[in-house]
Hints:
globular, 6-stranded mixed beta sheet, PhnH-like_sp, single chain, Alpha-D-ribose 1-methylphosphonate 5-triphosphate synthase subunit PhnH, Phosphonate_metab_PhnH
Amino acid sequence: MMTPDTAALTGGFSDAPCDAARAFRAILEAMARPGRIYPVTGATPPAPLSVAAGTALLVLADGTTPVHLAGRFDTPEIRQWLTFHTGAPLTAPAEAAFAVGDWAGLLPLDAYRIGVPEYPDRSATLIVELDALKDEGARLTGPGIEHEHRLNLPEPAAFRANAALFPLGLDFIVTAGERVAALPRTTKVEDA
């Protein structure tokens, strides 16, 4: 019988080395090819965390990467699950290496670290949960995109403003169900 105390023990990778390698590869491909959608599986996290977002956290978070759970994603079940499977400390937005939530819960974006000129890599990566992930909507160009990609983004102007901060800024992983896409800060975003 599953209790709230034992539920955190489930939902990780069933074959950790292989599942983690496949998931890491999918996320790496998504970052290298912004806007392209990839399937990703492996984790079975507590709701409302999607399979893709939970899997991303399992491969990216560890005891040295503070995570912020935004809005409705800050539940006791997700806290316990994430702590058990990754050891990642939970924190406020200003200290987070990673944050996960829906778009409204993650706002305002200026609450997160964007790096400093000497160390632009000391910024946060936001995992944005959407209801659906589609290759339509905002036009994406830049490194890793041969011509253009399209992606349904919640607020293209915010992503455009983030890209204008380069080399500083946030990186984004966008998830829905078992699908993932990414937008590094180098990606240029135009309205559809």
